Amino acid sequence: MEFLILGFFSGLSLILAIGAQNIFVIEQGLKKNHIFLVCLICSISDLILIFLGIFLFHYFVQYFSPIIELVFNILLIIFLLHFIYSKIKAFKVKIDFGENLNSTSKYSVAIKTLGFTYLNPHVYSDTIFILGNFSKNLMLNEKIFFGVGGSVASFLFFFIIGYLAKF
User: Which of 82, 113, 131, 156 is at 20 to 30 A from 121, Cα to Cα?
Assistant: First the structure.
């Protein structure tokens, strides 16, 4: 149970950072545009990526040298430094919520949601690298509880921000 709670709060602490995917979910909520579909795609995608990260690091720790783990951590640090720098540079960019997308098809919204999810490096850093790396020393059953906790945090977060923005 403690690893479920640990996974929940670890996942929640990472997802609270407002990135491109979260802004897209909020924007779709404000436009009242297929918000259930958007939240569901984002949540299921996070679940998949969280467990991919957990078991990817589990695999690397068991079968490869610690050098690969070091390389992943260095790449993550480089990415995070680049991400922070790009956010500081783009501080004054405005988002236009005036565009009416209520007539946008579910297919179009689903494709955009998948794009904002799987083309967003921030999603990979949180789910695969940070949560995966964090869980590398846990036992297999502890990893599963940790992943479920992180996934529950993702589901709650996306549906809360999506529907709060809608209302």
Answer: 156
